[in-house]
């Protein structure tokens, strides 16, 4: 294959398969909720595993066409994290004892391989194309899917809008109004879905930095970034020593905050917004690590943690829970302290480059958002194979992109407008 044919094949891949992958992931992200509400058998495990494997294959192939090898040194921690996840998956092959272990291994393993998409996201033209086709094809389909899922699931399909809200100041008026409406729609759809409220609100707040950029310094951003990375360790230590538990809001918030939420079946339930739904998860995960001495390398994606709260649903009869709502607990359970360290370093390096080695304000905004997502991984951010996880690693990949970081604010504006109109950037 000649160089020209190679590039032509790559462009075909870009404009046909990569946007299709995002559509498939978006649908798979709400398939379980569609089945819960409608009763339709749309959450078929074999079907979605096949499609997820297809998506991972396309992402892997696209790396050959769109990743500039000169950026490899900067992405060392992403590579090491991926290889450690592959090692952990391989361990799981020998640890799995029955059908349910194998099912858990494949399900969790798929999510651990998603970070490979960060390589493709370093290519600004490909990232622009992915967002363009989401807006053009995937987003309009939500008008149909919205009637098939409960409101708390809206954000799982619309998560790219929260990413685009980071560039809110650069949007044309009609897109500003449209995205604001979608953001409000997701936030108010179910206030009990606290993750949606947080993930869609924070980008809006961070985008305001652009309007005050002349009064804010890189040094300030760097201090905030470091504080965000240190904060989880400090708070974890305070909770472990029974000094202060941030999840126990009753200790420092006196007022009552509750709303009417919806369960998976769509039934109305009272939802206490101050309820501590995380401390017991940490306790169960740490107790499991102590029992099996799995601190360093974890139990592999084939196994979870023993759980008094959810263990009765374990089909193996071992009383385990395959995964938790808290992303960092999953990383720890499956890949150990080594995995947590590499996970942290991948985030840390991406946010550092975005804030300290960039020519535009929006790279710095993204760097702060990546640092926030590191903090939020200690609260939620489930690392399954969903659109949320995919766009998290697309965000991280764009932070690593030397081409994007070299852009000026005017260049970024041109790039953003190309998502909605026929403007393209050079493929770098």
What string, H for helix and E for strand, traces the elements in order?
Answer: HHHHHHHHHHEEHEEHHHHH
Strand content: under 5%
Strand neighbour order, sheet with most strands: 1-2
**Stretches with pLDDT under 50, minimum 5 residues:** none
Terminal residue distance: 21 Å
How many separate structural domains? 1
Structural class: mainly alpha
Radius of gyration equals: 21 Å
Major β-sheet, in short?
2 strands, antiparallel
Q: So how many helices?
A: 16
**Mean pLDDT metric:** 89
Helix content, binned percent = 55-70%
Summary keywords:
428 residues; mainly alpha; two-stranded antiparallel ribbon; 16 helices; 4 strands; 64% helix; globular
Spell out the blueprint of helices and strands.
Elements: H1 3-38, H2 45-66, H3 76-95, H4 99-113, H5 117-121, H6 124-145, H7 154-164, H8 173-189, H9 194-207, H10 218-240, E1 258-262, E2 268-272, H11 279-292, E3 305-306, E4 320-321, H12 327-356, H13 361-376, H14 387-400, H15 402-406, H16 409-420
Helix pairs in contact: 1-2, 1-6, 1-7, 2-4, 3-4, 3-12, 6-16, 7-8, 7-9, 7-14, 8-9, 9-13, 10-12, 10-13, 12-13, 12-14, 13-14
């Amino acid at each position: 294959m000649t160089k020209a044919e190679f590039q032509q094949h790559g462009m075909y891949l870009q404009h046909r398969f990569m946007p299709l992958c995002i559509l498939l992931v978006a649908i798979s992200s709400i398939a379980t909720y569609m089945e819960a509400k409608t009763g339709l058998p749309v959450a078929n495990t074999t079907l979605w595993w096949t499609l997820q494997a297809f998506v991972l294959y396309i992402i892997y192939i696209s790396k050959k066409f769109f990743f500039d090898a000169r950026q490899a040194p900067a992405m060392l921690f992403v590579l090491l994290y991926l290889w450690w996840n592959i090692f952990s998956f391989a361990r799981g092959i020998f640890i799995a004892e029955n059908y349910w272990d194998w099912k858990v291994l494949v399900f969790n393993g798929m999510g651990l391989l998603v970070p490979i998409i960060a390589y493709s996201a370093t290519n600004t033209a490909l990232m622009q194309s992915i967002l363009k086709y989401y807006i053009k094809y995937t987003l309009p389909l939500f008008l149909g899917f919205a009637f098939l899922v409960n409101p708390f699931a809206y954000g799982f399909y619309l998560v790219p809008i929260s990413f685009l809200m980071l560039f809110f100041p650069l949007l044309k008026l009609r897109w500003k109004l449209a995205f604001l409406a979608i953001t409000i729609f997701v936030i108010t759809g179910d206030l009990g879905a606290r993750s949606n409220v947080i993930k869609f609100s924070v980008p809006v707040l961070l985008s305001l930095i652009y309007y005050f950029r002349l009064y804010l310094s890189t040094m300030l951003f760097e201090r905030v970034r470091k504080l965000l990375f240190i904060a989880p360790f400090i708070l974890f230590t305070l909770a472990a020593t029974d000094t202060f538990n941030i999840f126990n809001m009753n200790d420092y918030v006196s007022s009552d905050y509750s709303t009417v939420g919806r369960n998976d079946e769509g039934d109305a339930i009272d939802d206490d917004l101050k309820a501590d739904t995380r401390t017991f998860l940490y306790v169960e995960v740490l107790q499991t690590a102590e029992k099996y001495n799995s601190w360093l390398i974890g139990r592999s994606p084939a196994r979870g943690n023993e759980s008094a709260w959810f263990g009765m649903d374990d089909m193996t009869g071992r009383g385990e829970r395959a995964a938790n709502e808290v992303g960092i607990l999953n990383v720890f359970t499956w890949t150990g302290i080594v995995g947590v360290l590499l996970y942290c370093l991948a985030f840390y390096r991406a946010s550092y480059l975005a804030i300290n080695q960039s020519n535009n304000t929006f790279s710095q905004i993204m760097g702060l958002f990546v640092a926030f997502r590191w903090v939020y991984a200690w609260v939620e951010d489930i690392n399954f194979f969903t659109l949320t996880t995919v766009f998290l690693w697309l965000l991280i990949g764009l932070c690593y992109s030397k081409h994007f970081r070299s852009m000026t604010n005017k260049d970024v504006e041109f790039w953003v407008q190309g998502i909605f109109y026929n403007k393209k950037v050079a493929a770098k």
